[in-house]
Amino acid sequence: MKHDLEGLLMQLRSVRLTAVEKRTARTALIAKLGLLPRQHVPSPFSYLVFSSHTRFAVAFALIFALVLSGGVGTALAAENALPGDTLYPVKISVNENIRSAIALSDEDKAAWESEAVERRLAESAALASQGRLTQETRVELEARIEKKVEKAREKITKLEARGRTEKALEVQTRIEASLVAYEGLLDEIDAQATSSSVRDEVKGLLRAVGKRADDERESRAEREEKISREAETQNARLDALRATADTLIGKAAVRFGEAPESRARIAAGGRIEDAKDALARGDGERAEKAFKQAALRYQESAREAKTAFTLLEAAAKTRLDISERFDDLRRDDSPSDADDSNEPESEQDNKDDDEREDRADTRGKEIRENRIDLNLF
Amino acid sequence: MTEKDFLAAYDAHADAIFRRCLFKVSDREAALELSQEVFTRVWEYVQEGNSIENMKAFLFRTTNNLIIDHYKKSRPLYEHDMSEESAAMLCEIPDTSRTDMHAEMEMVMRCVRKLPERERDIVLMHYTEGLPIQEIAEAIDEKPNSVSVWLKRSLEALRNCLRLSPKLT
Predict the structure, then answer these.
(1) pLDDT tens digits, residue range A241-288?
(2) Within a 10 A sphere around the Cβ of A101, how many other Cβ atoms?
(3) Residue B151, pLDDT score
(4) For chain A, what is the largest distance between any 2 Cα atoms, rounded to a whole number of angstroms?
(5) Looking at the partner chain, which of A11, A320, A368 has a beta carbon nearest the beta carbon of B105?
(6) CA-CA distances (angstroms) from residue A202 to A124, A129, A191, B56?
(7) Backbone angles phi, psi at A104, to 5 degrees
(8) Quick check: B94 contacting A, CB < 8 Å?
C-alpha cells in the first residue's frame, strides 16, 4: 500500500460542502442570526471581485425569506438540483429568477447571464459524470446554454455600446473560460463513460460546447484587439489590464495551492504558468514601448489565469474521479511541473483531460477572504 | 466574541462540522441542516454572554450533542447509518457518482465503519479533522488517557482490517 493509513484518513477531508452549499448556508446563517456580512475593504478591483457577492447574499436572503415559510431548505436543496430532478424547476424558476431580477445594472445582468451559462455547464457535467445524461436532458441543457449565451451576448454588446469595453470583455472571458474548462471536463467524462448511450449524449454535448467556445474565442479576439488599440496610448488602462491579470493569477494560484492533486490541477498549473509568462512578456514589451502588444499579453495572461481558476472550480464541482488523485500523487507532487499534461492556449487538444475531479477544496479560504467565486473575473 | 470572529470561525470550521455530521447521519441534506443548527446553537450560546476557549473543540462538542439528540428524536431517518452502503454514501456528493470514489478510500471507510461508534468518532476527529487528543477528550467528555488508548486500539484494528482487504496489502 503506497499510502499510509493516516494519509488516507486525512484524505477524507475532501468530503466537504460544495461551493454553492457553503455560500447558501453561510448566507442563510447570517440571515437567521441577524449577523451583518462583513464590509469589504474597498479595492480598485472590488467591483470585479465583490459585486456579485453582495448580490448573491441579497438574492439568498430573499430566497430564504420566500421559502422559509414553505419549507426549510427547499431553495437550498434546489440549488443542487439537476435537470430531471423534482426541484430543478424551483432552481430555474424561483432561485434564478430572483437572481436575475435583482441584477439591475447592465453589468450585473451580464455577469448573471455568464454565471447562468456556467451553472448549466456544471449541471451537464454533473449529469454526465453520474451517467444520467439522456437525450432529453442533453437537448434541454444545450438549449438552455445557448439561450444564456445569447442573452449574455446581448448584454455584452450593450456594455460595449456604452463604452464599457473592459467589462464586456470580462464577462465574455468568463463565458469562454467556462466553455473551455467544461469542454475539457466533458471530454474526460466521455473517455471514462462506460455506457455507450451516455457517451453518445456526452459527445453531442461536447460538440455543442466546443462550437460555442470557438465562437466566443473569435469575438473575444476582436474585443481584445480593440482594447489593446485603445490602451496603446493610455498608461492607466495598461496598468489596469496588468493589475487585472495579476489579481487573477493570484486567485488562481491560491485555489491551485488548495486543490487536491488531480489532472485538472496539473492542467490549471500549466495555465497559471502560462499566465505568469504572458504577464512577464507583457512587461518586457511595455519596456520596449510596444504598448499594444503589451496590452494583448496582459489580456492573454488574465484569460489563462481565469481559465485555470474555472478549471479548478469545475473540477471541484464535478469531482469526477478521486482515483486520479492517487495516480497523480505518485507521478508528481511539485505544483508547477505541469509538464506534459496541459497546453498553453485555450486550444485544448484535450489531452487536457485534466479536469479530473477531486473536490478542489479551496472553498473555505476563498470564502474566508470573501472572495466568492461568482463572477470573479 | 464578535460577529466577525464568529463568521471567521464558521468559515474555518463549516466543512469540518458538516463532514462530522455527514459521517454520522449519511444524509447530505440532514447533515447540512444539522451543521447549520450547530452554528446557530453556538452563536446563541455566545449571545448569552458565555465565552468559548477553544472554538473548534466546542463546535465538535456541540455537534456530538446535537447528533445524539437527533438520534433520539429521529431514529428511523438514520437507521441506514450502519448499512453496507454507508461507507460509499458518505463520500458521495450530490453531483457525483459514487463509482468515482477511489477504491482505497472506500476500503478505508468501510473499515472505519466497522469500528465501534466511539472509536470511529475518535479516529475521524483525530486524523481527518486534526483535533488533538486533549480536544477530543473535551468534545466527547472523556479522559485524554482513555482517548489515547482507544485511538491506538482503533488504528490497530483499522490496520488489521485493511490488511485483510485484498487491494491494500
Answers:
(1) 899 999 999 999 998 988 887 777 888 899 999 999 999 999 999 999
(2) 11
(3) 93
(4) 64
(5) A11
(6) 9, 9, 10, 43
(7) -95, -45
(8) yes
Distance of residue A259 Cα from the nearest chain B Cα, in angstroms: 15
Pairwise CA distance, residues B9 & A366, whole Å: 14
Residue B168 has pLDDT above 80, yes or no: no
Report CA torsion sign: A331, A10, B92, A56: negative
Q: Which amino acid is at A127?
A: L
Contact residues, chain A, for B35 at CB < 8 Å? 25
The residue that leads in pLDDT, A304 or B84, is A304
Residue-wise pLDDT for A339-363, tens only, equals 444 444 444 444 334 433 333 333 3
CA angle A357, A363, A364 (to 5 degrees): 140
Q: How far apart are CA B133 and CA A20, in angstroms?
A: 33
Q: What global pTM score does this model have?
A: 0.47
**B131, pLDDT greater than 50:** yes
Q: Which residues of A249-276 are buried (b: 16+ CB within 10 A; e: fewer)?
A: bebbbbbbebbbbbbbbbbbbbbbbbbb
Contact B102 A368 (CB under 8 A): no
Among A38, A317, A322, the residue with its CB nearest the CB of B100 is: A322
User: CB-based contact (8 Å) between B5 and chain A?
Assistant: no
pLDDT of B14? 92
Grid coordinates given for A336: 508547477
> CA-to-CA distance for A274 and A297, rounded, in angstroms?
11
For chain B, say whether A17 makes contact (Cβ under 8 Å).
yes
* Inter-chain CB proximity A36 and B124 less than 8 Å: no
Least confident range from A304-313, A322-331, B131-140, B152-161: namely A322-331
> Measured between alpha carbons, how far is A117 from A148 in angstroms, rounded to an integer?
6
Which of A295, A311, A346, A304 is closest to A165 using CA atoms?
A295
Separate counts of helices (H) and strands (E) for chain A: 16, 0
Q: Which residues contact A256 (CB under 8 A, 6 or more apart)?
A: A265, A268, A269, A272, A308, A312, A335
* A188 three-class SS: helix
| pLDDT single digits (tens) B16-47 | 998 888 887 767 777 888 898 899 999 989 88
Interface mutation vs chain A, best among B102, B109, B115, B120, most A CBs within 10 Å: B102
CB spacing of B128 vs A13 below 8 angstroms = yes
What interface predicted TM-score (ipTM) does this complex get? 0.74
Distance of alpha carbon A87 from the chain centroid:
23
Q: Which of A60-74, A244-258, B147-161 has the lowest mean pLDDT?
A: A60-74
pLDDT number for residue A274: 92
Nearest to B123 among A9, A22, A367 (CB): A9
Interface with chain B: mutation pick from A4, A18, A33, highest number of B CBs within 10 Å: A33
**Out of A141-155, A282-296, B25-39, B64-78, least confident range:** B64-78
Angstroms from B60 CA to nearest CA on chain A = 15
- B14 to A26: CB separation less than 8 angstroms, yes or no: yes
Task: Give helix A165-192 / helix A263-287 axis angle, nearest 10°.
Answer: 150
